[in-house]
Design goal:
With 267 residues, this protein is an alpha/beta fold. Helices cover 46% and strands 16% of the residues. Strands 1-2-3-4-5-7-10 form a 7-stranded mixed beta sheet, sandwiched between helices. The mean pLDDT is 91.
Length: 267
């Protein structure tokens, strides 16, 4: 295991901590006194980290220090911003979260406590979400007089439907871990303090996949889901041919056919 407060290709702010476990990188939000609210330095650090993930990292886990994953935007950052500065601020969040969603390595988020506002937007940009039972989801922007600015108006309706997002913003409705999993906020629900270990286990499994298959799942599948049927099917054929032509895929297929690889079983 390597451990670094400062370096993962770039110098990180004190609000982020990075360490490496084999092929898995772990990025921790370190503002527990602010419920891990996201300030400008943290957003820039997230962008820098996911723009230059070390080559030997094949999957990343994101989690929060303390009792909460992330309570959203640090509202003190909004003071005295005009419209132009507000647009630039939102676009900075977009760039950071795009680096997560369409980056080089799949990302597993560990959710606990508050997953609120910008924290929910951050979680939605990750590929797999593991929720501890303490997790709760909310969008308090309506009561704050603001609007989603970190990509949530695009990503969250795709997870739970636009009408539920509207309800959350207008009424302040929140969801707990179990109901949230049924709606699509998370993929897994685990007991208290089991989230990080579960996420690392999933990340290790992901890191063991063929790289081209992980790339296709991250980059091709989401775009296919949004384009017309004919274009999606054509892209699927192209990606399938590219993936199966990769030397790593050929090796894995030989291992399976020659009974050196395990068969698929229910997990």
């Amino acid at each position: 295991m390597t451990d670094s407060n400062d370096e993962a290709g770039n110098k990180l702010p004190s609000s982020l901590h990075f360490e490496q476990h084999g092929a898995v990188g772990i990025l921790r939000l370190c503002r527990p006194h602010k419920r891990n609210a996201l300030d400008d330095a943290t957003i820039q650090g997230i962008e820098d980290f996911f723009s230059a993930i070390p080559d030997d990292i094949k999957a990343v886990v994101v989690h929060g220090e303390g009792e909460h994953f992330c309570a959203g935007l640090d509202l003190s950052e909004l003071a005295e911003r005009d419209v132009a500065a507000g647009i630039a601020h939102s676009r900075a969040w977009h760039r950071a979260f795009e680096r997560i969603e369409f980056g080089r390595a799949p990302v597993v988020a560990v959710l606990h406590g508050a997953v609120v506002g910008g924290g929910l937007e951050l979680a939605a940009a990750c590929h797999i979400r593991v929720a501890e039972r303490s997790s709760y989801y909310a969008l308090p922007e309506g009561s704050r007089g603001i609007f989603l600015g970190g990509g949530g108006s695009v990503r969250l309706p795709r997870l739970i439907g636009a009408s539920r997002v509207i309800d959350m913003m207008l009424t302040g409705r929140s969801y707990g871990a179990d109901e949230g999993a049924l709606l699509g906020f998370s993929h897994y629900v685990v007991e208290a303090d089991a989230g990080l270990a579960t996420a690392i286990e999933l990340a290790e499994r992901i890191a063991g996949n063929a790289p081209m298959t992980n790339f296709a799942a991250m980059h091709v599948l989401p775009h296919n889901a949004e384009q017309d049927r004919a274009s999606g099917l054509l892209m699927e054929s192209l990606m399938a041919a590219i993936a199966q032509g990769d030397p790593e895929a050929k090796r894995r297929l030989r291992d399976f056919l020659e009974k050196r690889a395990p068969k698929t079983v229910q997990r």
